Amino acid sequence: MNNKYLVMLVLIITSFFITACKNVPPVTSGIGSSQITPGQKYNEHLQIDNKQLAEQLYISDIKSRTHNDFLQLNLTLTSRYKKSLQLQYQFQWFDKDGFAIEAGKSPWQALELHGMQTATVAGLAPSTKVSTFSLYVREVPEKFFKF
Q1: Cα–Cα dist 86/138, whole Å
Q2: What DSSP string describes 46-107?
Q3: pTM of the predicted model, to two decimals?
Q4: Is 39 left (phi over 0), alpha (psi -120 to 50) or beta?
Q5: C-alpha R_g of the chain
Q6: What does each of the 147 residues of the chain score in pLDDT, given as a tens digit?
Q7: What are the residues whose beta carbons fall under 8 Å from the beta carbon of 109, sequence distance 6 or more?
Q8: How do strand 100-101 and strand 109-113 relate by DSSP bridges?
Q9: What domains are defined for the chain?
Q10: Which of 1, 7, 131, 145 shows a CA-CA span of 20 to 30 A to 36?
Q11: 125 pairs with which residues across the strands?
Q12: Long-range pairs for 41-44: beta carbons < 8 A, 24 or more residues apart
């Protein structure tokens, strides 16, 4: 009987060692940095009223500089969608207090993003008082771009 208990003890100890060495990720609360959805970093600058479209697009990078005191931007807009998207975009410009500058005067620009494509969108502020911006994006209904 001693051999039986000894074998059982060896098996239990071995199973504890195997379990302890198993590579199990630690339990964390919240979202880890590797689990953050791409584009969350710049979410406050992207305005999309269509929920389905909003899940398919994100701003992956923003580069800005001032040129003669005017804010100049290059935004990298990325599609998560596997098919082509016919889009229009428009910049809205705001001063340091959050008031719109020349609201509604920026024209809508056409943009076609193919599946999973990334495109650079450029913008130049209409005033030297601009301190921040939003990029409004909308989908062009299919009936408007078919001939």
Answers
A1: 9
A2: EE-S-HHHHTTEEEEEEEEEEETTEEEEEEEEEE--SS-EEEEEEEEEE-TTS-EESTT-SP
A3: 0.69
A4: left
A5: 26
A6: 577 777 676 667 666 555 555 443 333 333 333 333 555 678 899 999 999 999 999 999 999 999 899 999 999 999 999 999 999 999 999 999 999 999 888 899 999 999 999 999 999 999 999 999 999 999 998 766 555
A7: 88, 89, 90, 121
A8: unpaired
A9: 38-145 (2.60.40.3230)
A10: 131
A11: none
A12: 42/75
Q: What local confidence, expressed as pLDDT, does residue 69 receive?
A: 94
- Interatomic CA distance for residues 136 and 53, integer angstroms: 12
Name the residue type at position 74: N
Q: Do residues 74 and 42 lie in contact, with contact meaning Cβ atoms separated by under 8 Å?
A: no
Bridge partners of 64, per DSSP, are 73
Q: Which residues contact 45 (CB under 8 A, 6 or more apart)?
A: 59, 62, 75, 132, 133, 134, 135
Q: How far apart are CA 84 and CA 39, in angstroms?
A: 19
Phi/psi at 123 (5° precision): -145, 145
